[in-house]
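Project outcomes to date are best conveyed with an example. Our students and postdoctoral researchers have been running inverse folding experiments weekly, and each run begins with a structure described purely in tokens. The record below, which covers 105 residues, was selected by the lab manager from last quarter's runs and is presented without edits.
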């Protein structure tokens, strides 16, 4: 969950309630930024696989990451999508829910 938080919600904008992380910042670097964010996402999915999550949950996690990666190909709009979609946190939540861990962070 820490890695997901770093990637998706590490920084907040006071008064607006908007949080973003390294994924949105990396996405500003043409080409390599989105690839780097996707590689981190694959690390999270691989951890889920090693923990024994069922195939359907892994596929859902891959779809989340795929949407994030695909949106990254759209200049500017893809960066805004990163701020709101938070694929890494969504995927971390899938892992925590699978194991019945109720953690709101």
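After processing, the design step wrote out the following sequence:
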């Amino acid at each position: 969950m820490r890695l997901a938080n770093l990637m998706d919600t590490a920084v907040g904008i006071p008064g607006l309630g908007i949080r973003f992380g390294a994924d949105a910042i990396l996405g500003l670097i043409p080409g390599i930024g989105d690839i780097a964010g996707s590689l981190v996402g694959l690390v999270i999915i691989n951890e889920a696989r090693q923990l024994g999550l069922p195939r359907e949950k892994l596929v859902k996690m891959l779809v989340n990451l795929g949407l994030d990666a695909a949106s990254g190909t759209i200049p500017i709009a893809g960066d805004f999508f990163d701020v709101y979609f938070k694929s890494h946190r969504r995927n971390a939540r899938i892992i925590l829910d699978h194991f019945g861990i109720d953690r709101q962070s």
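The chain has a mean pLDDT of 92. The beta strands are 11-13, 18-20. The training component of this project remains on track.
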